Backbone:
C-alpha cells in the first residue's frame, strides 16, 4: 500500500478540515451497513454546510415573499435579501451586480446565451443585430466540453444554420489550440475553464485573445473553476460565463450567468413572462433592462440567499486556501493511484494547470464494477462518461471513474480511495481468473 | 455481505467466460442498444424459425462492451432463450425484468428463471438495473423487428 | 364596520386553521413596529409549513447527491427521493409519472412548450412534425392571461410567423368565448384555469372541446387552480398544463409541466445539456425519452422533495376542504369590501366559478397608496397590474389591489383587510380635502 | 409613526393641488415614461432657453397618472426647476436621487433640496423610490433630448 505521507503540503494558510467537516451534517452519516461516508463526488454536486441551510431557512421563516413585486414589508425584505446575494456573488467573481443573472443551473445559463443569440434573428431591436449568426458562420467548441456547453451549440447551429467546429484534445489532456480553427467566420467560442473529467485548466486568456482577434464572442463554462479557485471574470476578459450553485456549497436549483454589461443590454430575452417586461400590449411587448430581462417569473429566491451564504463561507475560507487544499489532495491522489499497477490516469498527471478532478481506468475492471466495490466501502465516486462523451471517445474509452475533491476532503479519504481501487482489483481477480 | 450478493459466482463466471458470444449468420434482425449513462453498447442478432409466440429462437448472437453485470446477463440470456420458443423466452424475460426492477420486493421464481435468478441481488442497486437489462431488451427488440407477429411482452407499459 | 358574522361557512369538514397556522413559522412574526403579519399575498407566493422545510432539510442532511448520475448509495437515495416526489405530484393532479416534468417555475414550463414547438421547425425527428406552425397559423390566448402565458406566445409567433388571436373579457370578468376566434387556422389555445386577478375560473372543458374540434393543442396555466382546488388534468383533457411549487406551500425554484404522454414523446427538447441525451456525437446528438429529455442539467432535487412534502400536506388537509375554506374567506371579502362606499370589485362578485383572488379599486386612492396604509397595519396585499397588463387595460384601470387567500388565512384577517381599506380612505381624505 | 413620515403634509398638499400641471407650448422636447411595476405614466415637456448647464428652464409642463408620491414629486419638481438653470436643476435632482435611494442613510441637504426634502421618508420604502423619481427622471431625459449639450447628471452610472 502506498503511503501518502510523502505528499507535499502547500505553504500558506491551510484549511482546518476537521472544523469544516463539523459544518456538514451529511458527512457524519454512514452508508452500506455502517461504513463512514467518503464523499468524493463534489464535481457532480457538493454538500452544504449548516450555514447555508440555516441562511435559507432563516429567510423562509422570516422574510419569504415574491421579490420585486410587492410594496409590503416582507416583499421589501425579500427583495433586499435577493439583491444582496446578487451583489456578493457578483463581487465573488469580480463582476458588477448588473452583470449577474440568476438561472436554475449552469445548463440554463448556457442555453440562455444560445437562445438569446438565436432570438436575435427574429428580434426587431437594432441592438440585437450584433448577435445575428447564420449559414457560413461558425461556432467553436472543444472536445473536452461538458454536454451543457456543447449540445446547446449543436442546437444553436441547427436553429441558425451555422457550422460547429472543434478544438481537439492532446494525448496528455490539453487543448490542441490549432490556429486554423478560429477564423474570420467564427462568431462564438464556447469553452470550459476546467474540465470536469481531466481536471485540465484551459488557457482562457489565450483563447480570449484568439476570439477577440476575429471579433467572436467567448462563452466560458466556469462550473468547475469558480467553486475551486479565485476567478475574476473581468480579468479573464470573457464575454459570458456560467456556473452552478450546487457545485460550490450552495443550493441546487440556482445557477449564474455572467455577461458583460454591454452585451446583456443588447441580448434579446430568452424565457419570457412576468417581471422581465417593460410594457405588455396585445400586439407586442418590450422588455426590462438586465438582469431583470433574463429572470422571468418568480425567481429562486431562497436559493439565491443560500448561494450568497455559500459565497460568504468560501470567502471566509479564502479561495486561495481552498485551491491549495485541493492541490494537496490531488497530488496525493495522482501519486497514490499511479502507484497501483493497472491504473491509468486520464488527463494531466501533475499539478500544472490542473484542478481536483482525477479520472482513471483500471485494467480489466469496468468502471461501474469498480465503483460498486468502492461504494461498498462507503466511497462515493462517479462513473460513466461524466456528460463528456466526445472527450471519452477521443480517449478511446467508454467510461471512466472520477474522484473529485473539495474543502471537506482529507488525505485519509484519498488513501481510502487508493485502497478501494486495490480491493476492486482483488475482487474481480478472485479465483485467480484473470480478466 | 451485500457486494457478494450482487456479484454471485455464477455472474462472475459468465462474465469471465461468456457463452455464445460473437455475431453469427444467419439472422433476421440485428439491433444496437446503448446505455446512455455509461456509454456501454450491445449488438444483438436473432435467428428465428417460424412466427409468433411459437417461433423458435435458433440463435442469439451478440457483441458487447460493458460491465460484468451486462456481459453476464447477455451470456445467461443466450443460454436461456436459444432453443426455446419466443413465447417461452418472453416469459423468462418478463419474470426477470419484474425481479430486477422489483427493488428486492419481488420473489424470484427459480423454475422460470433458472440461472437468471443469480441477478436477484441487482434489484438492490437501482443504478445497475439497466445493466442487467441491456442485452435482454436488445433481444426483445430484435425479435420484434424480425417478426411482425411477435407477441407482446407481459407487464410492459 | 361590517360584521362578517353573516358569512356562510361551508358544510363538510373544515380546516383547523389555528393548527395549520402553527405549522407556518413566518406567520408568528410581526412587521412595521410590532404589527402581527396578515399575509394576504399567497396568490403571488405562498408561505411554507415546517413539514416542507423539514423535508428539504432532512434530504440535504442525509441523501443529497446528483440524481440519475451516480452508482453510489447517496445517489441512489437521492434519485429515489426525487422520483418519489414526481410520483406523488403526478398523482396529485391525476397524471402518470412520465407526464410530469420539473422546471424552475411555471414560466419556464410554459416557455418549454412554446420553444419545444418552435424547435419542431428545425428538428429532423419525424415525430416532431405535428408541432410545426408557421405563417397563416394562429395561436389563441385570452385577455385575462398572466404575462407568463402570453408573452411566450407573442415570442413564439415572432419566431414562427404565426398570428396571435385573443378571447376578450366581459364586463363581469368572464371570458367572451366568441366562436369566431378558434378556427381551422388555430394550432394552439393557451389559457388560464383561474385568473390571478379576477379569480374567475374558466370553462376548461368547453374550451378544450372547441380546440379539439379544430385539432389545436391546449396549454393550461394552472398556477392558480392546482394550489386551491382538486384538479385532474386527465379529466380536463388538456394537452399541457403548468404550475409552480411556491404557490402551493412548496419551495421556490420548482415548477411543473404536465404533458400528455404521447405529446411529450414527440416534443423536441428545449434546454439541452447533461442528463437529457441519449447519444452525443460531435456532429449531432439524440435525446432521451421524457421526462428526462426536458430536464437538462442537475435538477432542483431538494426542491422536488419539498414540493412532494407540500403535496402530502395538502392531501392531508384535503383539497376539497382547502377549496371550501377559501370560499368562506372569499365570500367574506366580497361582502365586506362591497359594503365599503367607493370600493369597486374587479371580477365576479359572487362565488360562482370563482376562486380566492379578490382585486379591487378604491375611488380616489391610488392602489399603491392604499397598500402602503394596509402595510402599515401589517397587511400584505399586492398592488399593480399583477403581470396581467392587457386585462387591466381591458378594464380601463392602471392597477389594482389584490387580496388572495390560502389555508392559513382567517375571517379575522379578512375583517382586518376591510378595516384597513377604510383606514386608507380616511388617511387620504384627512383635512376634509376630497381627492 | 412611519406612515406619516412618508406622507408628509406637504406631499399630500402637492398631490391634492398639483403645481404647474398640464401640457403647454412651447417646448423643445416631450418624453413619456412608464413605471413597469404599476403601469403609471408621466408625460413631460421642457422649454429651455440657451444650452448646456447655463440654459434656463423656462417651463416644465406635464400630464401624469399615478400615486400620491409620483404626482407630488412631479409637482415639487415643477416648483424647483422652473426659473433655474439646467445645472442648478440637475444639482437638486442629484441630491434628491441620492436621498431617496439612500435607504435612509443619506443626510438630506435642505438648502439644496428645499421642499423636496419632504420625500426623505420615501427612502425607507424601496418599492416607492421609483414613484418619487418617475417625473424627475422624465424631466432629465427631456432636457437631454432638448439640448445635446445638456450636462451629465452627477452620481449617475
Ligand atoms: C396565473 C399565473 N400564471 C403564471 C404565473 C407565473 O408563475 P411563476 O412566476 O411561478 O413562473 C403566475 C404567478 O406569478 C400566475 O398567477
Ligand atoms: C464543466 C461542467 N459544465 C456544466 C455542468 C452542468 O452544470 P449543471 O448541471 O448544474 O447545469 C457541469 C456539471 O454537471 C460541469 O461539470
Ligand atoms: S455499467 Fe454500462 S451496462 Fe453496466
Ligand atoms: S405606484 Fe405607480 S408611480 Fe407610484
Residues:
Amino acid at each position: 500500500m502506498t503511503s501518502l505521507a510523502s505528499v507535499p503540503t502547500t505553504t500558506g494558510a491551510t484549511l482546518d478540515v476537521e472544523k469544516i467537516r463539523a459544518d456538514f451534517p451529511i458527512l457524519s452519516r454512514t452508508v452500506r451497513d455502517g461504513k463512514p461516508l467518503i464523499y468524493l463526488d463534489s464535481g457532480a454536486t457538493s454538500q452544504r454546510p449548516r450555514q447555508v441551510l440555516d441562511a435559507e431557512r432563516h429567510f423562509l421563516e422570516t422574510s419569504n415573499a415574491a421579490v420585486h413585486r410587492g410594496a409590503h414589508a416582507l416583499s421589501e425584505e425579500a427583495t433586499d435579501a435577493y439583491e444582496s446575494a446578487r451583489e456578493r456573488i457578483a463581487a465573488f467573481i469580480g463582476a458588477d451586480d448588473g452583470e449577474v443573472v440568476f438561472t436554475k443551473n449552469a445548463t440554463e445559463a448556457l442555453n440562455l446565451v444560445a437562445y438569446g443569440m438565436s432570438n436575435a434573428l427574429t428580434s426587431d431591436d437594432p441592438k440585437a443585430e450584433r448577435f445575428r449568426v447564420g449559414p457560413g458562420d461558425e461556432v467553436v467548441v472543444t472536445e473536452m466540453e461538458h454536454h451543457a456547453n456543447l449540445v446547446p451549440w449543436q442546437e444553436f447551429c441547427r436553429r441558425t444554420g451555422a457550422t460547429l467546429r472543434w478544438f481537439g484534445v492532446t494525448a496528455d489532456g490539453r487543448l490542441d489550440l490549432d490556429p486554423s480553427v478560429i477564423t474570420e467566420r467564427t462568431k462564438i467560442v464556447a469553452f470550459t475553464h476546467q474540465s470536469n473529467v481531466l481536471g485540465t485548466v484551459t488557457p482562457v486568456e489565450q483563447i480570449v485573445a484568439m476570439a477577440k482577434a476575429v471579433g467572436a464572442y467567448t462563452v466560458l463554462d466556469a462550473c468547475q473553476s469558480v467553486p475551486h479557485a479565485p476567478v475574476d471574470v473581468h480579468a479573464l476578459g470573457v464575454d459570458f460565463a456560467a456556473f452552478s450553485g450546487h457545485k460550490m456549497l450552495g443550493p441546487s436549483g440556482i445557477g449564474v450567468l455572467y455577461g458583460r454589461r454591454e452585451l446583456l443590454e443588447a441580448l434579446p430575452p430568452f424565457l419570457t413572462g412576468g417581471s422581465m417586461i417593460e410594457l405588455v400590449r396585445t400586439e407586442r411587448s418590450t422588455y426590462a433592462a438586465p438582469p431583470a430581462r433574463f429572470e422571468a417569473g418568480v425567481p429562486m429566491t431562497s436559493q439565491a440567499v443560500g448561494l450568497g451564504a455559500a459565497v460568504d463561507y468560501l470567502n471566509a475560507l479564502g479561495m486561495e486556501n481552498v485551491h491549495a487544499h485541493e492541490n494537496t489532495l490531488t497530488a496525493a491522489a495522482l501519486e497514490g493511484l499511479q502507484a497501483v499497477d493497472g491504473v491509468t490516469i486520464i488527463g494531466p498527471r501533475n499539478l500544472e494547470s490542473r484542478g481536483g478532478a482525477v479520472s482513471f481506468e483500471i485494467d480489466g475492471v469496468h468502471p461501474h464494477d469498480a465503483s460498486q466495490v468502492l461504494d461498498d466501502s462507503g466511497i462515493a465516486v462517479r462513473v460513466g462518461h461524466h456528460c463528456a462523451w466526445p472527450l471519452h471517445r477521443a480517449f478511446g474509452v467508454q467510461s471512466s471513474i472520477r474522484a473529485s475533491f473539495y474543502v471537506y476532503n482529507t488525505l485519509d479519504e484519498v488513501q481510502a480511495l487508493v485502497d478501494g481501487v486495490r480491493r476492486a482489483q482483488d475482487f474481480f481477480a478472485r479465483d485467480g481468473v484473470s480478466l | 455481505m451485500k457486494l457478494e450478493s450482487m456479484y454471485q459466482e455464477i455472474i462472475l463466471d459468465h462474465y469471465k467466460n461468456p457463452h455464445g458470444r460473437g455475431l453469427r449468420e444467419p439472422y433476421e434482425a440485428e439491433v444496437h442498444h446503448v446505455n446512455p449513462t455509461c456509454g456501454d453498447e450491445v449488438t444483438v442478432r436473432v435467428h428465428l424459425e417460424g412466427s409468433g409466440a411459437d417461433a423458435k429462437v435458433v440463435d442469439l448472437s451478440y457483441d458487447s462492451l460493458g460491465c460484468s453485470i451486462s456481459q453476464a446477463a447477455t451470456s445467461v440470456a443466450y443460454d436461456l432463450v436459444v432453443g426455446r420458443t419466443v413465447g417461452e423466452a418472453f416469459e423468462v424475460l418478463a419474470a426477470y425484468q419484474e425481479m430486477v426492477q422489483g427493488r428486492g420486493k419481488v420473489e424470484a421464481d427459480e423454475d422460470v428463471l433458472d440461472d437468471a435468478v443469480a441477478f436477484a441481488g441487482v434489484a438492490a442497486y437501482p443504478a445497475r438495473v439497466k445493466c442487467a437489462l441491456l442485452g435482454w431488451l436488445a433481444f426483445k427488440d430484435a425479435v420484434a423487428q424480425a417478426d411482425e407477429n411477435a407477441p407482446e411482452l407481459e407487464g410492459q407499459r
Chain C has two domains: 17-49+318-428, 53-315. The interface with chain B takes residues 68-71, 75-76, 79-80, 277-279, 288 of chain C (CB under 8 Å). Residues 1-12 of chain C have pLDDT under 50 and may be disordered. The domain at 53-315 of chain C is CATH 3.40.640.10 (Aspartate Aminotransferase; domain 2).
